[in-house]
Each structure stands twice: as structure tokens, then as C-alpha cells.
Amino acid sequence: MKNSWSVLVAVIFSAVVLSQLAIARPPVGVVGPGGEVIVFYKDGRDVVVRNCGGNYTVVNRLPDCVTVGKENRVPADQFKLSLRGMFYVADADKLKPLTKEEIAKFKTSVPGYDKIVEARKQALDAKLARIKKFIEMYGGDEKSQADVKDTEKLLASARQELVTAKAGASAIDKVNKLIDDVVDKISSSKFTFVSSSKSSDTAMYTLLKNQYDGSREECGTDEILNGTLPGKGTPEGGKAGTAAKLYNIIITPAMAATITDAQRIKDCSLRKDSSKTTSKGVKWNLVARKRDVSTGKYYEVWKDSKSGKVWGDKLDSDYTHHDAIELNMSGKVIKEKACITEEAKRASARIGDKSFGLPTIKEYEDAESNGIREVLPNMRYSWFWSASLSPYGSDGARGFDGDDGNSFDFGIRAGHSSVRCVGR
User: Is residue 148 pLDDT above 70, yes or no?
Assistant: First the structure.
């Protein structure tokens, strides 16, 4: 992974160079494990993702790619967001036109953090002005003089931090422009280029396979099991679907029977890789897989047979801990915030019969002991918030590292990180 992004960018820019010699710009392809080829190209406002399957001796024209399953059309803006996320985790030291220093600043920056620091600086400026006004009117006692020194010290630190934060924001702007340029230059219906490397495009292959591969069908959704969307189904699921069609005529949705996990799992059981037993000896089952029209992504929900917990996919946006959940002074959950949003519903395949919430650090640790990272998509290269506060102070919260499975303390709840919700 460490060199995958720089190689990926080289692949894309090689395609762009080739495009200058051709009448039309070529799409780009990546080769995954077993020789599976996935190509993607821009068509109007969409990026089209096509799984060509495997066992090819050569793929250098679009007709060479016999589509496996369905193509997927992804809004170009959404595709750019996904690429932007890869920038934060991949090794881009050779990426141009950014310098190594700019890349370092980009990777250690959080979008919008410069605005957070600026707000803190302004608050300190106002506090210092109030203290000085007090001294001017009433004279300076020992406490007010100490307050001046402490505030000036904090202000100097904030000003220095603001310089660094603004440099990071500048690097973020450059990366955003570069991604816009890259995606805008992937075009045409001609296909004249595919990466021949089996390992160099790991990051892009993982992104395409986990999030945008239309060759793997939807399953376990309310629409399929209610008979409103075509699906392979199972004998039991088929009966449920047929009955649901009759129910829809005479019974309101609120009166319809709740779809069980077992029905969802049974419907998904006909799909490849719908059941996995981890190295921990724990079986996980695919509960639902659903495509969202607005993002073009497929979201997966899996059930841990040992804990009985149902885990949703990663949310598309990062959140501060304050925006993810509301806690009281004792750290007790008062209100779920991130896990009741529209994007949280997408990430949980719109399963409405469960209560999804931000996992506690213990739920993450239990899931790790059951092999969660071997099963769930979009775990790697992300830090996830938990609902648990840091033992060292209420300004911090516990988090889970999707890369190595460790739990840790975030320094500040105002920082941004990933969110994944668990159904209980």
C-alpha cells in the first residue's frame, strides 16, 4: 500500500500521456488478485466502472472486456471524494506538483482545521482585550497580570499553529485541484491501456472492488425481501416476497412483518463470499448489500455470529466526536447523531428494523477479537471514533485503528475521524 498511490497516479498520468497521442483519451484499468480486471472511464458526469472478470491474456480494447454482472455508474464528484480519501493514507512522495513538505503537511492536516485554529486565536484575542480593559479600568492585581501572561502565551502558540494549519489547507487545495484534473482527463469509449502489474494498484483495486463493483449483486434488502425489487431470493425468502406483495395491497408498511436477520442472510447466501470464518474461528454472515443511487456505492452490512451484533459500512464523511454523538458529563450517551444521518442509513443498507449507534470501545475490541478486520470492507487506513471517552479527560475520546486493530486515545474530540455504526 505504501507505494500504491504513487504508482496509481503514475498509471493515470501515463494514460493521460497516451491520450494525447490518440484521438480519444483512454479509460484506465487495474488488475487484481487472480487476474481480475476492473476498468473505469468517464462518461458525461459519471465514471463508469466495469468488472471484466479474470483469465485474460490481454485487455487493451473495450471490446476485450466482457462485463461480468452489471456496470456501475458513479457520479464523478463522488469518485473524486473517494480518491481524495486515498490521498490521506497512501504514500504520495513522488506525486507532482506537490513537494515532499507539502505532502507531509497535507497528510497531517484535517480539512477545515485552519478555521478551527483561527476561531481559537480570535477567542484568545478577545479574552486578552477583556483582561487588558479590566486592568486599565481597575488596575492590575497579581491574578490579572498572570492571566495576561497565560493568555499571551496561548495566543503565541495559536498563532504559530495557525501558520502550520494554513500551510496544510494550501496543500489540501492543491490535492483537490490535482484530483479534479485527473478525473476530468479520464474520458472516451476507447480502451487502449491497462495496468499489467498484479500488485501496484492495490489501493485503487480495493477501492473499486469494495465500493463500486457492480458485478456483485444486491441482497438482503427490504426491497428484495418485500418483492419490490428483483432478486434471486431463497425458497423462504421467495415466500416472504410473494406474501409481501399481497400485504402491500391490503396492509400498510407499518403493519407488515419485520424482516429478520435470518431472512436477509438466507437471501445473501446465494452470493459469492457471503459467509466468512475468520482466523479467530468466528463466522460472519453478509446481512445486506445495497447500492445507493446518489453515490453509486455499494454498502455492506455483516453480522458477527458470536456477539450477535450487526455492523454497517463506513460512513462517507468524517465527523468530529461532538458531531458523532452527544454525551453527558459522565460519558453516558444522550443522543446518537452521526448514526441517524442520511449517510448512516445508506451505510446500513437502509435496514430500518435495528437501532444503529456509535460502537463503544469494548464493542470494537470484542469485534476485533472475533476478526472484524478480516470481513468488513473499508476498514483499512481509517481511524474510527468510539462512543467512549478518554480516561485522561473529557476533551478526548477512544478510537479504533482499522489498520492494526488497536484501540487508542484521540487527543481532542474536535478533530475529525471516521465513523462506523453497529446495530444492536
Answer: yes
